[in-house]
Each structure stands twice: as C-alpha cells, then as structure tokens.
Known about the structure:
Blueprint lengths: L1 E3 L22 E3 L4 E3 L15 E6 L4 E6 L19 H17 L8 E11 L13 E13 L2 E13 L2 E13 L1 H13 L13 H4 L9 E3 L5 E4 L18 H16 L6 E8 L9 E8 L5 E10 L2 E11 L9
Antiparallel strand pairs: 1-2, 3-4, 4-5, 5-7, 6-9, 6-12, 7-8, 8-9, 10-11, 11-13, 12-15, 13-14, 14-15
Amino acid sequence: MLRTGPSSALTDDQTGRAARPANATASVVENAPHRTVTKELAHRTTETDVFPTRWSRISDTRFRFTAHWPAAHPFFGPVDAIHQDPMIVGETLRQASMVLAHAEFGAPADTHFVMWDLTVFTDPGALLLADAAEPVVVDVVCSEIRRRGRGLAGMRTTMEFRRAGRFVARGTGSTGCTSPLAYRRLRAGQLDAMDKPVPALPGIEPGLTGRDRPEDVVLAPGDGPGVWHLRVDTGHPVLFPRPNDHVPGMVLFEAARQAATAASGLRPFLPRAMTVTFDRYAELHSPCRLETEVLDESPGEVTVRVSGRQDGESVFSARLTSARPRPVRSLS
C-alpha cells in the first residue's frame, strides 16, 4: 500500500547540503518486503565480508537496511578488548551504496564505481564489542542522483546507523558510475597492465598502525617523521578481493587511519570523525607518499590530517579526529 508524506527525520546529507529524499510528495511503501543482500551486489567474494544483510524500499530515494557487524573478522575485527572497528561503518556504507546502485537504480553488474568522498561520524562509546550480536539498523537517503540516459551516472548516499535504538554513526559518500566501454577508454593502459606484478613493500611494525597482523599493514617506511609510503598487497583477500587496475578507495581510507594512528601515537585510535576526498585514481605501479600533520585543536582530542601524493599530484586528503576512550555502558 502506498501513502505520501515523510517517513523519517533523516533529510540532510552529512556535507550540510539538503538531500532530496522523501518529502511531502514522495510515495512511501508501508510494510515493504525485504530483499537479501548477496555478495555479488555488495562487490565481495565471500559472504563473511558482507555486512548489510537485507533491505527494504521505503520510497524512491529512501531505504532501510539491516546489517551485522561481527565480533570477529579477519580484517574488520575489534581494535581493543572493548570497541569494534569504526572503519566497518565506512565499509558498510560503501557496500550498501553499491547494492542500491545495482538493485534499485539499475546499474548493470559490470558497472565500474569510483568513490569521490566519504565522511563518517561515530560515537565510539556505542561501537561496543559486547553489543556485536545486536543487529544494526541503517536508514538511507539517496540524493544528487545523476542519470546518463536511462542509466545511473552517480549519486550520494547518506546513512544513519543505530543499534537497539541507540545512535552509533552517521555517514555520507558520493559515488560515480562508469560503463565498461567508457572505463576502457579512460583506463586502457592500466587495464592492460593488470597482469604486471605489484611488489609489496615491507610494512612498518603492525603495532604502530593499530594492527595486529603484518599482512594488514598498508604503510611502508618513509623518508622522515610522519611520512610513509603506501604498501600495496594485491593478494590481500579483503582489501583486494578481485583484480583491480588501481588502489581501491577503501584501501586509501585505511591507509589514512593507519597513518593517523602512527602519527598520533594514540592506542587505540578511535575516530569520532573521518573525512576523505579522492582527487584521482591511485595507480598500482607508482609510489604513493603519505604525509601527516597532527593538530591538537581541543583538549582530549587529536586531529590528524593525511595527504596522499603520487607522481607529484594529489591522490587524496583526509582528516581524522579521535577522542580518548571514555567509560561506556553496554546495551546488555
């Protein structure tokens, strides 16, 4: 059954621009059926790496997902004995955005996606390992929807994450879509070089990055304090689940988090705010230099700016702010 009217208070994207979601004239579906998220829709190769589990359509631009953030995961595992990894919020947002692009906005399965920006705000006190069994409810607004003919050229997704009714995080990201033919014209040289090996540089000490396993480190030693090089391991099952002609945006996001952790010396580094803007593709076969600047802008918090440059040009810029852990209360 259809009705008209607003369905939620989530109406603006995280950049402060007004989204154009359900409004006074948008049709809203009551008791909408749920659809299951597959690993293909989420662009993952194993089910254990898929965090959104199902979704329902509320209106043309509004959706609600249920997600599961496991207590243990080979990469998105806990950062200490208390907290889950805040990066799982960004990864859930990324997966849910691609699910909607394919299943609700008609992007073909062979569409190439590029992430232009990603912003995540979290309440670290709500990202508790003890609450991992609780489902996460994700309310989504799609805005800035751009069409190319009948196809999808790109859109922004803004999401609010709650667990047992408690606010956990909010995020937004803008994604562009490119057809295989257009992508071939744009990236022919890089696509033809995908079989060329990419030697993995030696990583820095895992503990400096907030990681436990050497294989999860994406930073290599640099040539000065607060400077590192991007370490690319195309065989990593989570960071590179399939062959790629460039470094995925989430690898750069993880590199920014690891660089902020190493530069700040804060253990654990629990960002309450993370913003990254991508300026160009990060190439696999050229060194990418990461530079950091630590800013002590307010008591009890540390903000780190991270910039990535390759071949003399900016690849990405990020800003991460972490508050020192405070006492938290579990839902249970």
